[in-house]
Amino acid sequence: MKDLDKDKIKEEIKSNVKRLYRKEFKEATEKEIFQAVSLVVKDEIIDDWLATQNAMDEQDPKTVYYMSMEFLMGRALGNNMLNLCVYDEFKQALDELGLDITSIEDQEPDPALGNGGLGRLAACFLDSLSTLGYPAYGCGIRYRYGMFKQKIEDGFQKEVPDDWLKENYPFELKRSEYTYEVKFGGYVRTEVGKDGRLNFIQEGYRSVLAVPYDMPIVGYNNNVVNSLMIWDAQPKQVFSLESFDKGDYVKAVEDENLARSLVEVLYPNDSHISGKELRLKQQYFFVSASLQRAIQRFKKHHDDIHDLPKKVVFQMNDTHPTLTVPELMRLLMDVEGLGWDEAWDITTHCVAYTNHTIMTEALEKWPIEIFSRLLPRIYNIVEEINRRFCLEIEKKYPGDQGKVDRMAIIYDGQVRMAYLAIAAAFSVNGVAKLHTEILKKETLKDFYDMYPEKFNNKTNGITQRRFLLHGNPLLASWVTDKIGDGWITDLSQMSRLKVFVDDEKAQQEFRSIKYKNKLRLARYIKEHNGIEIDPNSIFDVQVKRLHEYKRQLLNIIHVMYEYNRIKEHPELDVIPKTYIFGAKAAAGYKIAKLTIKLINNVAAVINNDRSINNKLKVVFIEDYKVSNAEMIFAAADVSEQISTASKEASGTSNMKFMMNGAVTIGTMDGATVEMVEEMGRENAFIFGMSADEVIEHEQKRDYNPMDIFNQDQDIRKVLMQMVNGFYSPDNSELFRPIYNSLLNTNETQYPDTYFNLKDFRSYAETQDKLMETYRDEKKWTRMAMMNTACCGKFSSDRTIQQYVDDIWHLDHIHVNPLEDDEN
Ligand code: 26W
To answer: Which residues carry this modification: N6-(pyridoxal phosphate)lysine (predicted)?
Structure first.
């Protein structure tokens, strides 16, 4: 489709090097060449981007605005080349210039404007929206510093700022023409207008300018390029002596500080709410700016604002963008001049909400003191929404004050954001079947009883274009060899691989690809961690954010147990195993950070014990992020999905492993349940309590880990080693807090909240079974191949199609490539 051949590419790269750096090509550094290559790719994108814009103007399709505090995009260069279908041409061109395409890709900073699952899901969704040809904007924040870089020093996590914009980032475009003002604080004055209506006027406020940067979201081979708009903040006027003269000195400095601090940093926390005022400011900032741009776009083609729901839908990615509700109300009433009922009718037909967690610590609540001071007019509106909502509850459940208290949006001095979102949204969805059922039956039961029609499930998915086509080129071309390349845009075709799972030759090919990917990861680990690992050992991998509920602790306790066993029984015939961890802990999450230290200390002891003959190795990969994740999934034999059942809303790394032919050891939690449904339980290693059992124990409060500790000598030994200096000779008390979290009853918290000890035996037995299965090469390869063959359901293309069918009802856009003479 492109008239770019490798010779033209070479020419353009060289000329860009000259243009950008006034250098001959041979003198350029890899960084400079990365910029030059990116510029060629960007030029390719621009025409399609424009054409998509034109198509949207002409066809005026219904458009989704995906509102999210986080977009964990990962690197763009390789992905863009692939989606433009020019990757091979670039690879050849660079080859002929004496360069390796992956080392050029490695020069790109990893745009990490997100924490984990929720942010990465948003990025996968954008890729699918463009590929399926649906009009969409991602709306977020252009954090100056994204997710911190993780350094491991003496086994401890150290957070280092992620200065991703230090050098010019090639895949963004500043759009100053879409600058909007966003106001904070002050007070609201009312005034009766000429028409007799009450007008609300905010005065004495601080304000900033929101300036968007657009990033292109390239669809696969279809000329569609949507935009991710991420907002930067600028002061209205830069501090000047002039304003000092006018007596505005303090205001000018304050505005400047506000703008600077607003988008400074992503909150690196995805488990506990921080309740920080600045975070609420960030939320309002990007919501207000995005809505203003959306409404301005709408009004370009429409006179009647009542038609907004026909053309626009806002999807709120968790509660973080819930201010979309009152801000849309404000814009419709205070700016567009509508009355309450009309505004509410429009708003409730435009907003939808996705829930991503049942963990109560993560459910956002804002103290009304902060909320009303920072957003006085918005607070007014939320109060009125709450007043009307409580009346509605009373009407439905007369006399049931308990109901009203449980469901009120404003309660006990706080604004409950999830309840605000549900009261206004026309759709509320969970992210896996089990998760949605738990929302309906437990977490949000009152709301489900009141609005059953709002609730629906949308099981998460991932984009095969990044996590197979780009991340695992060997397996990708093997799949294409076997079944053609239709899977790239229709993952359900993967099921056609099933005919090969018993084919000896195919099995051998599959194994050899896995082996090569293991070599690639081993090289990376050697380079980045200085640890030598054996590609013939089983790669058992757990990579995800560090959380107690995800139970990295269960994993490392089991490693400690295995180590003891090998020491005690050197005659045991075990297959060498390499346990690989990768995880960032929120900077203030003490027990999570200590778990990282424990993993590293256990690694130090085990990896240096010559007596165990390399039967066991433990590696902690520093700075787990999208770019190294792609490589890790491709190399994994075993995928650890061991959360306490009911706690992991969906999980998405489970799907990435599955696609890449790793076999899961896991609990029946999140989307793992549906993976097992697709491939059959015989193709996974399932253990532990079910969600129902967990919930029952939680309700009865009848679990006492001390009983297990007292009875199980192996567990006892491992836990004693945690506090007798075995793994921390310089400070035997170092890991006491972890020990206490498992065993100590103090009044406020339940010991072993996440049932590590309860599930331990079942986990250990299942690990043994896994190792026995691995001995049977054919059986194992078949299982691994079945994983790849059954992953079809877990494409984000499928997920997005379901959002479109059931919630968004978007129109397709048809993009015709620009004619040459238009270029
Ligand atoms: C307020 C702080 C905060 C920040 C982020 C609380 C909670 C979050 C997110 C909801 C956490 C998150 O990333 N959840 C994950 O979302 C994924 C995508 O749906 C799911 O696959 C994971 O199971 C869920 O943990």
So the answer is: 656
Domain range enclosing 664: 464-794
Burial of 661 by CB count in 10 Å (0-12 exposed, 13-18 middle, 19+ buried)?
buried
Burial class (CB in 10 A: 0-12, 13-18, 19+), 611: exposed
CA 41–ligand 1 middle distance (angstroms): 33
201's tokens: 């006027």
Closest C-alpha to ligand 1, atom 4: 270
Q: Which one is catalytic: 544, 577, 593, 798?
A: 544
The reply to whether 554 and 596 lie within a common domain is yes
Q: Which atom of ligand 1 is nearest to the CA of 279?
A: 1
Of the two residues 1 and 363, the one the predictor is more confident about is 363
* Shared-domain flag, residues 455 and 577: no
Judge contact between 102 and 473, C-beta under 8 A.
no
List C-alpha distances in Å: 429 to 77, 201, 355, 454, 612. Answer: 33, 36, 6, 8, 50
Q: What is the CATH number of the domain that holds 779?
A: 3.40.50.2000
656 catalytic per annotation: yes
**761 counts as catalytic:** no
Is 404 inside any structural domain? yes
- Ligand 1 interacting residues, C-beta cut-off 6 A: 115-118, 121, 269-270, 273, 318, 356-357, 362, 364, 431, 460, 648-652, 670
Nearest to 656 by CA among 673, 672, 678: 672
| Model confidence, pTM | 0.97
**Structure confidence at residue 816 (pLDDT):** 86
pLDDT of residue 744: 87
Chain segment 467-513, per-residue pLDDT in tens = 999 999 999 999 999 999 999 999 999 999 999 999 999 999 999 99
- Choosing from 66, 67, 118 the residue with most ligand 1 atoms within 8 A of its CB, the one to mutate for a pocket test is 118
Q: Among residues 42, 320, 550, 577, which one is catalytic?
A: 550
Same domain for 391 and 473, yes or no, is no
pLDDT band at residue 823 using 50, 70 and 90 as cut-offs: very low
Amino acid (1-letter code) at residue 158:
K
Annotated active-site residue 311? The verdict is no
Amino acid at 498: K
Q: Which residue in 68, 478, 42 sits closest to 218, CA to CA?
A: 42
Pocket residue to mutate for ligand 1, from 318, 354, 667, most atoms within 8 A of Cβ: 318
Residue whose C-alpha is closest to residue 612's, from 621, 622, 602, 620: 602
Active-site option among 547, 656, 782, 798: 656
Q: Catalytic annotation on 458?
A: no
d(CA 533, CA 521): 9
SS3 string, 295-325, reads HHHHHHHCCCHHHHHHHEEEEEECCCCCCHH
pLDDT level of residue 271 (50, 70, 90 thresholds): confident
Q: Which of 111-125, 583-597, 743-757, 760-774 has the lowest mean pLDDT?
A: 743-757
Same domain? For 572 and 437 the reply is no
Mean of the per-residue pLDDT values of the chain? 95
